[in-house]
Amino acid sequence: PANLNAAASPAGDAELDRIWKLFADGNLSEARSAIAARTAAESGWQPPQELIDKLDAAEAARRLVNASSAGQWATVLEVATQTPALLTCGNVDALWRVAEAFAKTGKADRARDAYRYVLINCTDPGERLATVQKASGLLPDADVRDLLKLERTGPNGAGEFASIRVDLARTRVGKAAQDPKIAVEPDELAEVERLARDGASPDDALVLGYYFYSHGDPGRSLEWFKRAVDRKGGAR
Question: pTM to 2 decimals?
Answer without folding.
Answer: 0.75
